[in-house]
């Protein structure tokens, strides 16, 4: 655990920085509230709709596809570090794993889920 | 000051654990969906910290990559997909407390068996320790130990996992591709 002290320190500094800057600017700045100042900034134009709009369901599809292949990549790593020890057994095992996911890849491809019409 | 720092450093696991529970509580209690996602993100980061304090580096990094990276984005997309302001008028999200409590009670019963074993069983007497291969130096790194467990001891679960991922993929396509927006 010793090696992580710098990272922990970095995290603490990263948390402390905005707190210090916010507090400092709160103390220094003039306080003149105005309704216009609290308006949402939208490239200088008066906002017409709420920011919380319904997005296309395709974003969800993209996120799930990303997540599945992300998890797959995570499992490739422990296989790679023990590649020589696992030898043919690991290769076959990983081959089955990858083949099943390749099947899924073919499925989403054939369904046209990868295109954005 | 120095004593405080030392005692903090020695108790990082419970600190991260309590922070994670706090994040989870924020996630459940928050009225704003985006705040819930932020609470979830905080809890996941703290769980990664827990893994790191247990010297399970590979799991910690995987936790950061998959949960804090991927799943939080997925949750944010789900929040964006659902027009929450519309549902807020109908008040459907505030009427689920009883159902939620029942579901939690059922879940506790299921998890309780495993928890009882871990808390009061023979394993509870042993401290949380690393697998013997790592401590006696037979395996060099953390990822190697994970790989040994994954590809040798838990072969079938690993292969079943690919089927679960496949189901997630196909299910998402079936659900989301029906509408042409």
Features of this protein?
heterodimer; A: 117 residues; mainly alpha; Methane Monooxygenase Hydroxylase, Chain G, domain 1; 3 helices; 65% helix; flat; B: 181 residues; Four Helix Bundle (Hemerythrin (Met), subunit A); 9 helices; globular
| Distance between the first and last residues' Cα of chain A | 50 Å
H/E topology pattern of chain A: HHH
List the chains of the largest interface with their residue counts.
A-B, 48 and 48 residues
Let me know the largest β-sheet of chain B: none
The number of distinct β-strands of chain B equals: 0
Poorly predicted runs of chain B are none
- Point out poorly predicted stretches of chain A: none
Give the CA-based shape of chain A: flat
Kindly provide the radius of gyration of chain B, computed on alpha-carbon positions and rounded to a whole number of angstroms: 20 Å
**Domain count of chain A:** 1
* CATH homology superfamily name of the largest domain in chain B: NADH-ubiquinone/plastoquinone oxidoreductase chain 6, subunit NuoJ
Question: Helical stretch count of chain A?
Answer: 3
CATH topology of the largest domain in chain B: Four Helix Bundle (Hemerythrin (Met), subunit A)
Helicity range of chain B: over 70%
Known CATH architecture of the largest domain in chain B: Up-down Bundle
Q: Beta-strand level of the residues of chain B, as a percent range?
A: under 5%
What distance separates the N and C termini of chain B? 60 Å
Task: Say what oligomer this is.
Answer: heterodimer
The number of distinct helices of chain B, counting runs of at least 4 residues, comes to 9
Question: Structurally, how many domains make up the residues of chain B?
Answer: 2
Helical coverage of chain A, percent range:
55-70%
């Amino acid at each position: 655990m010793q090696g992580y002290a710098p990272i922990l320190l970095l995290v603490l500094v990263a948390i402390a920085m905005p707190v210090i800057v916010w507090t400092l600017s709160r103390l220094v700045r003039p306080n003149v509230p105005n309704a216009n100042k609290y308006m949402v900034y939208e490239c200088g134009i008066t906002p017409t709709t709420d920011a919380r709009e319904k997005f296309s369901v395709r974003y969800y599809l993209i996120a799930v596809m990303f997540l599945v292949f992300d998890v797959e990549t995570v499992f490739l790593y422990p296989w790679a570090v023990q590649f020589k020890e696992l030898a043919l057994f690991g290769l076959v095992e990983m081959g089955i794993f990858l083949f099943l996911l390749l099947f899924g890849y073919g499925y989403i491809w054939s369904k046209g889920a990868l295109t954005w019409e | 000051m120095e004593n405080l720092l030392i005692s903090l450093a020695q108790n990082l696991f419970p600190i991260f654990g309590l922070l994670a529970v706090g994040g989870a509580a924020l996630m459940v209690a928050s009225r704003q969906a985006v705040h819930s996602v932020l609470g979830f993100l905080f809890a996941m980061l703290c769980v990664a910290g827990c893994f790191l304090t247990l010297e399970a580096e590979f799991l910690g990094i995987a936790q950061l990559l998959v949960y804090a990276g991927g799943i939080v984005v997925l949750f944010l997309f789900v929040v964006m997909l659902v027009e929450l302001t519309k549902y807020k008028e109908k008040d459907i999200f505030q009427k689920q407390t009883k159902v939620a409590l029942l579901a939690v009670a059922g879940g506790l019963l299921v998890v309780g068996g495993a928890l009882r074993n871990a808390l009061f069983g023979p394993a509870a007497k042993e401290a949380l320790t690393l697998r013997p291969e790592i401590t006696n130096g037979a395996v060099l790194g953390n990822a190697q130990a994970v790989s040994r467990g994954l590809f040798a001891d838990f072969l079938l679960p690993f292969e079943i996992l690919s089927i679960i991922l496949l189901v997630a993929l196909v299910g998402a396509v079936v659900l989301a591709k029906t509408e042409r927006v």
